[in-house]
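Troubleshooting log. The previous run stalled partway through. Resubmitting the same two chains, unchanged.
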Amino acid sequence: MTKHFLYPLRTLLFGCMCAASPTLWAANLQAELVDTQGQPLANAVVTLRGPLGAEAERSNALMDQQAKQFVPNVLVVRTGTLVPFPNSDNIRHHVYSFSPAKRFELRLYQGTPSEPVLFDKPGVVVLGCNIHDWMIGYVYVTDDPWFAVSDEAGKISLDQLPAGRYAVSLWHPQIPEMLPQTGAELVLGEPGAQQRFTLAMQAPSNVAPATAPPSAFADAFRKATRDSAQ
Amino acid sequence: MTLRSSFQARIASVLILLLAVVVGALYFSVQTATNAAVRSQAGEQLEIGTRVFEQLLDVRGRQLHDAVQVLAADFGFKAAVASGDTATIGSALANHGARINAGVVMLLGLDDRLQVSTDSRITEQTVARLSAQVRQRQREGVQVFLMPIADKLYLLVEATVSAPLPIARVMMGFQVDQTFAHELRELTHLELTLVASQNNLPAIWVSTLPAPNQQQLQQDMSAGPPTRSGMLRLGEQSYLGRQLVLASGEGFQVQALLHKSLTQAQQAFAPLYEDILLIALAALLASLGGALLLARNVSQPVRLLARVAERVGQGDYQVPLELKRSDELGRLATAFNAMQQGIAERERQLAHNALHDPLTGLPNRTLALERLGSAITAERPMAVLYLGVGNLRAVNENCGPGGGDLALQQLSRRLQATLRPGDSLARLVADEFLLLLENTNSDSAVATADKLHQLLIKPLRIGTVDVALDCRIGIVAYPADGLTPDDLLRRASIVMQDAAKLPGRVQVYQQGRDAAQQRQISLIRDLPRAPAQGELLLHYQPKLDIRGGTVRQAEALLRWQHPQLGMVSPGEFIPLAERTGSIQLLTSWVIEEVLRQLREWNGRGLKVQVSLNISTEDLLDSELPARVEHLLNQYQVPAAQLIFEITESGVMLNPQVALQVLHSLRDCGISLSVDDFGTGYSSLAQLKRMPVQELKIDQSFIRDLDDASEDAVIVRSTIEMSHSLGLKVVAEGVEYERSLRLLERWQCDTAQGYLISRPLAAKAFEAWLAQPLTSAVSLVH
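Second attempt completed without errors. Output:
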């Protein structure tokens, strides 16, 4: 399964590299992300592969753990970024990932571990904590130079983009098969361009419930008892 | 003894029957109750067991689910699964499965495809089917699944392997085996049978039932659905059962059969039944004993009573009944004794009454005869005094009713006072007593009787009246005068009657007196039949007309030719006839016979005047004149040819009626003659009142008539007096010639007697008339 969703990513990355060209830093992007029902989507990732030659600056990324949650929940980094995993909680965490994009394990630690983790392959890295099962975080590793994560209102804002034509990739933790949605083209040049992107979400039923109902079997048994009694 | 057998047996059998019914009813009600209790208890246990079973399965499922969850969350396991290396994954599955004793562990991809399995027999197809079914059940909300896989039944639990997002599903199967079933049985106390049926495969059986029962159950299940009642009989045991479908899906079904053994529950009551049986047996024995004891207690006194009753029946009243009890039987015994005494007393009374006279308390005739008999048996000489009271009726009339009784009581007291020891007194009938004087002969008995008579002649005082009893005593002596009590008594009675006629009122029996009495009795008996039997005949005695020297008259005299006793004289039977009332019969016959004879003679030209005797009773018969007149007409005989001779005493008895009859007869034309004149006390004045034409001077004056005797004066003066009254005079009993001469001289009219002729039969009389008179008679002229 990991292989399946690895393959399109690679293709995407390849495509981005080819399309890259130098442009002016003149444009910015204001966009809103919604689901198919039109509801704003938080933690949605938008990456742009712009005109060839245009290269964005590398930024520092950080995956914190606060109140037994990964903060931010979704982190986008460029391939080859070193991400430190500081632990802001006063308890220990055991952060791990079995994602093919990056397998790693930060054994029980407190504070910032000595070594940041290098995400050297594009792809989705799902983070978990072996102690706190509900702690799930995502590190979206991309080759695209420009990217943003939507806020609570589903909005993103990118500044100082060179004008030109961009290939847009969209991703969200609930996107089907965890594969980014690609294919949208975007021409940036005029200022104040307002964009709206729609993402199809995975049906929630596909996700297995976290815990079993307390007495599902008993219910079934009772039902059988009742049936036989009738 | 039937009493014993029947009574005791009946009490015993009733008691035992009652007890048997009670115990039986008790037993059956206990059995019914216990059966119901067992059933309801078993039902309850089944219900509870079912719930426990359900809880156990639930808990077990949850435990397994949790365990699998924990297992799936194990970091190492996740790491292994995430490694993607089949061998590694396989070993991890085996390892972790072993941790929680899972029988089979499978790893499925999120696309439901089997990735790795610990059991090589599990194929892709099986997993596909299982997965589909699990999905189906999951959609129904079930997390633990009972499913058959191959030939085993598994409890399947599925868990998602999250790393941290779901990457695979692990499915662990826990084999439901005999051990598991037994574990459940330990907890629920129910026999558990799980049956997993699959398409095209033999059903899987997991059961805690004993093997034979299980086999039978299998056969029953294949034969048809279980009965509604839930009752099931397997081998020796009976069960209450329930059937549940635990899981079913495409091509399979898992059923749970829960059974509660009733037999086991019932066995708990076996001691109770044994106890009841024991109690019943003990009660049965006790009641049998009790019944026998009770029956004995009752039957023994009853038998005693029966024996005493038999003795009483045989007349033994002397043995008292010894039964000291305070109950009903005791009361019965007391009553029995009282009854015995009562009967004895009444029997004594009855015996006394039978042998004694209630009025005087003296022995009665029976006892007197008995005593007489016993004296005769002992050959003790004794005198029998038969005492009669002649005037008891008069006493009764004078002293009023009861007077006679009082007189008799006083009499008996007087008599008793005279008795010597050994003598006895008895009252035979109303006015007759008997005295038995021991060792006494006739002579000394007469002396005693005289003394008695003197004593008894003294008047008795009845109330205010003094009464003298007219007692007569007849004496017979044993053995001189008779050898049987009856003879002695009869003869004494006769003698007593004879004594009545004696002035001394005491008579001793004389030999032959008895025979005369017998002759008298037969005469009295035969007299009324004599006229019809033709035993009577008339003789005619001629009557001489002294002055004319002719015979134109005769007296008809009745004769009785008795078939056994021969000729009986009128002097013997006429008084008897008068006493017994047969005289009228005789008179009637005589009148008719005389008339018949007269008609006969008249027919032959023989004119005779016939006189006949009319008795006292005839004179009191007012019908007589009419009857005579009728006969006169019938026989066409002139009344003048008849003379009726009557006696003075006859008229004297009831002069009024007698005179009436006489006048009527006289009016018919019949002449009347006074017979036996001179023997009675009739006065001439009376004679004058009677319509008579003739006097007959009694023969006692005539028989020895001579010149010098007193009779001559009487006869002569009577003749003169009669003539002066206008009466003719007949002299009877003329036997001597000199008598006739005197009569002639005194001018007597008619003479009758042997001198003229004895009485003659009709033919002889006719012949006698035809002859000339004898010289003696004719001498008169």
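Takeaways: The two ends of chain B are 113 Å apart (CA to CA). The longest helix of chain B spans residues 2-73.
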